[in-house]
Design goal:
The structure holds two protein chains of two kinds. The two termini of chain A are about 30 Å apart. Chain A is built from twelve helices and no strands. In chain A, helix 2 packs antiparallel against helix 3 (about 70-105) and helix 5 packs across helix 12. Chain A has one domain. Chain A has helices spanning about 1-15, 20-55, 70-105, 105-110, 115-140, 140-145, 145-150, 155-180, 185-200, 210-220, 220-230, 235-260. By secondary structure, chain A is mostly helical. Chain B has a domain at about 30-105 and about 220-255: Rossmann fold, CATH 3.40.50. Helix content of chain B is about 30%, strand content about 25%. Chain B contains nine helices and nine strands. In chain B, a hairpin with a 2-residue loop joins strand 8 and strand 9. The chains are: A mainly alpha, B alpha/beta. The interface of A and B includes residues 9, 109 and 111 of A.
Chain lengths: ~260, ~270
């Protein structure tokens, strides 16, 4: 436990000593604010159009039910945010393993009493904690929808859990990419690519057979994320995200053995 | 990949018969290292070729050779970072390929200065090194304080490593390697890139630790090897072309010919 604690502490210092962590946090906050603002602006314009064209004002029941804060602002914001995170999170995860290899500090770590498993656990834990922090920051604006948008607290919690699990899944993919290369650039690009590919396979429906599509649908992130956004929490979805994290950690651990063999 | 147990019969390159090294060694200190037929291939390239080597307890051993001779590959196999393609290496009879954790528990490794964390402050880094070696609480604090004093780092404890001179960075690297008083210390290019004053400081530090553990010094600086080691082994193209007491190997008329693999000391 002493060794793991020492490594976690080191990881936190190194992470926040890097400008990339601060840039990523700022980006998440900024992009979230912009996305939220943009959707809110469109919502206001729609309301204004209805108000002026019917001359009945906002209280005249002329605005259709589907034009509301929840459906016009909250859900689209979460959808856009989910896709945006696919691009931002790999900027943080790219350096976690790759930088150690590029600097040669991985050999320093491996000549201490830290096991490869402990190294993977510590690095994943710190990356997950950072992503959680970023998600808390990003969730401030959507949370404002609770008071006025008819989104209940339970629904909001479901959405937050979905967003967080999605972000952790993207981080897991980025960490695996970082574990197999010493180039941060390659790790970032591979992280983007793998994240985008795994995001949604619904486009593949017309091109592949039913069985293959069922498999692709089973491994894609979006259907699970979408369910959380609608306030649906299923155990199978939680298992999916937990499984993705476990597979990613196992692959990252495997990268150490691979390097012992391949050099 | 063959992972045999270490053989007892030494069968290496021709060793120069000589008196034991003059440097006194503390009885029982350090570890014994034994390599038999140790080979590592990367595709068609043979980085280490059927290496047979014995390093006795408490020896300060200089691993010499030009760039690409196989020094780093040997060290990586010795520390368990890399698996051998054939043959065995052992530390006190323990194979780093089979039980890397047991070998690393006995090990201190001082990499080149570029292989440190520039963001960490000196004291923080040493605390991390202590924790990574399983030291905690008062034990870690004592080890860190002793190390700061021993390696004359008191004046820079709060400075980030990246802002230190190369000499100080080298001392930090050595401090973390010796922090837990390991019986085996491997030091990679300890004076590379240092000015003459810094080189002297680092050499003094290493000279102080000599005889208290098995020390492996990877270098291509003959001066360092002459001053700091009892025995040297010279690698060329992955093969051990010379092994013996330091004066016997390095005081010959043209020791650099060994680096080029042009002379067989036998």
């Amino acid at each position: 436990m002493t060794r793991l604690r020492a490594l976690v502490r080191k990881e936190v210092i190194v992470l926040f000593g890097s400008p990339m962590a601060w840039i990523a946090l700022t980006l998440v906050a900024l992009v979230t604010a912009l996305i939220f603002y943009d959707h809110l602006r469109i919502y206001n314009q729609i309301l204004f159009l209805y108000a002026t064209s019917t001359m009945g004002g906002f209280e005249s029941d002329t605005v259709p039910d589907y034009i509301n804060l929840r459906d016009t602002v909250f859900f689209p914001v979460m959808e856009t945010l989910g896709i945006t995170l696919l691009g931002i999170i790999p900027l943080v995860t790219m350096r976690v393993f790759a930088e150690e290899r590029a600097r040669g500090t991985d050999e320093l770590l491996l000549t201490t009493r830290l096991s490869p498993g402990a190294i993977v656990v510590a690095k994943f834990a710190v990356a997950y904690a950072f992503v959680t922090l970023a998600m808390v920051v990003s969730f401030v604006y959507p949370a404002m929808a609770v008071s006025r948008g008819g989104v209940g607290v339970q629904h909001l919690l479901s959405v937050f859990v979905g967003l967080l699990l999605h972000a952790l899944a993207v981080a897991s993919i980025g960490l695996v990419c970082s574990a197999f290369t010493k180039s941060q650039l390659i790790a970032a690009i591979a992280g983007f690519a793998a994240g985008f590919v795994l995001w949604d396979f619904s486009w593949a429906g017309p091109f592949v057979g039913e069985r293959l599509f069922a498999v692709l649908d089973a491994i894609s992130i979006h259907p699970r994320y979408g369910a959380f956004s609608e306030g649906v929490v299923r155990v199978s979805h939680l298992v999916y995200f937990a499984g993705l994290a476990c597979v990613a950690a196992a692959l990252a651990r495997l990268s150490f053995d691979w390097r012992r063999v391949a050099g | 990949m063959s992972q045999q147990q270490p053989q007892s019969a030494p069968e290496g390159p021709a060793e120069i018969p000589a008196e034991p090294a003059e440097r006194s060694r503390e009885a029982g200190s350090g570890v014994r290292i034994e390599a038999r037929g140790l080979t590592r291939r990367f595709g068609p390239h043979v980085a280490v070729d059927a290496l047979d080597l014995d390093i006795e307890r408490g020896t300060a051993f200089g691993l010499l050779g030009a760039n690409g001779a196989g020094k780093t590959t040997f060290i990586r196999m010795l520390t368990g970072i890399l698996l051998p393609s054939a043959g065995t290496v052992s530390v006190d009879g323990i194979s780093p390929a089979l039980d890397p954790a047991a070998v690393r528990a006995r090990l201190g490794f001082a990499p080149e200065t570029s292989c440190l964390y520039p963001e960490l402050r000196v004291r923080g880094f040493l605390h991390f090194a202590a924790g990574a070696r399983g030291l905690s609480g008062a034990e870690a604090e004592t080890a860190v304080e002793a190390s700061l004093e021993r390696f004359h780092l008191e004046e820079v404890t709060k400075r980030p490593i990246g802002q230190l001179s190369k000499g100080f960075q080298q001392r930090v690297s050595l401090a973390q390697a010796f922090l837990h008083e390991p019986p085996l210390v491997i030091v990679d290019e300890p004076t590379s890139g240092l000015d003459p004053l810094q080189q002297e400081e680092v050499k003094q530090v290493l000279a102080d630790r000599r005889g208290r553990c098995t020390l492996i010094l990877c270098t291509h600086d003959l001066g360092d090897a002459r001053e700091l080691t009892d025995e040297v082994g010279v690698l060329h193209a992955g093969r051990l072309v010379a092994h013996g007491p330091t004066p016997e190997i390095l005081d010959r008329p043209e020791p650099l010919r060994l680096f080029r693999g042009e002379e067989d000391p036998a």
